[in-house]
Design brief:
221 residues; 2 domains; 9% strand; binds 2-acetamido-2-deoxy-beta-D-glucopyranose
Length: 221
């Protein structure tokens, strides 16, 4: 689910498009050839492909310039340097300083550059960009006011339409007798053996919001 209301996020995505164009131009002993045309690949192979593309200084400058020119359209750039309550402790991000740092820093690959831009902007914790594959987690409040992490009640309604050709891959990974559909609305008891909020917090540090991640043990309902 991509919500393009966030100008900041949109331009990070524009940067990623440029990166994939460079990828297409690089073709000798190409780690990307291993994974071309495949739907599911080993993350290590994907990383090898992404990190094989060097930074093109002209494109890097263009990306930074485009992002820099969009910042004045975003009202919160100034206050995110020292965010007001209730974000006082959570957000301290000076994007102009960040861009200056990124501009002068060298990167082993174009992927590392993009990762830095992406993580830096996500430090705003401006949760307008979410992602799910295929069980988005949401915070639901029950009638007594207790909040808990759940799989979104309409998760399957969306994933079965958006990723219709991938459902069999995910279902094959589930324990016997559990279908993706049966997980709609399930309470999440732990993620990677820890309280779900540990994963929510860890993930927010990287994604700027939170998204489905890792192993989810569920209570059937
Ligand atoms: C971003 O734009 C401002 C204002 O035009 C300029 O002073 C600054 O040097 C630019 N930063 C980068 C990294 O290009
Ligand atoms: C999801 O689909 C089920 C039927 O499969 C339907 O009953 C339910 O209303 C749908 N939920 C939403 C939010 O669309």
């Amino acid at each position: 689910m991509v919500n393009t209301r966030s100008i900041l996020t949109t331009f990070v995505v524009v940067g990623s498009v440029l990166a994939s164009e460079i990828t297409l131009q690089t073709r000798q002993s190409d780690p990307c050839a291993n994974i071309g045309g495949q739907k599911w690949v080993d993350p290590a192979d994907l990383r090898a492909c992404f990190t094989s593309v060097p930074v093109d200084p002209a494109i890097k400058e263009n990306i930074i310039d485009v992002i820099n020119k969009t910042l004045p359209f975003h009202a919160s750039v100034n206050y995110q340097i020292s965010a007001p309550e209730p974000f006082t402790d959570a957000v301290h991000e000076d994007l102009l300083k960040d861009l200056a740092r990124i501009s002068s820093q060298s990167y082993d690959s174009d992927y590392d550059l993009h990762l830095d831009i992406s993580k830096t902007f996500k430090n705003l914790k401006d949760a307008l960009f979410s992602n799910f594959l295929p069980i988005p987690l949401v915070l639901l409040t029950d009638a007594s006011g207790t909040q808990a992490v759940h799989i979104a009640p309409e998760a399957y309604n969306v994933s079965s339409v958006e990723f219709a050709d991938q459902i069999d891959v995910w279902e094959a990974a589930l324990p016997k007798g559990i279908t993706l559909k049966s997980l709609n609305g399930a309470t999440v008891l732990s993620i990677n053996d820890a309280d779900p909020f540990a994963a929510v917090d860890a993930n927010a540090e990287i994604t700027g919001t939170f998204q489905a991640l890792g192993l989810v043990r569920i209570r059937e309902h």
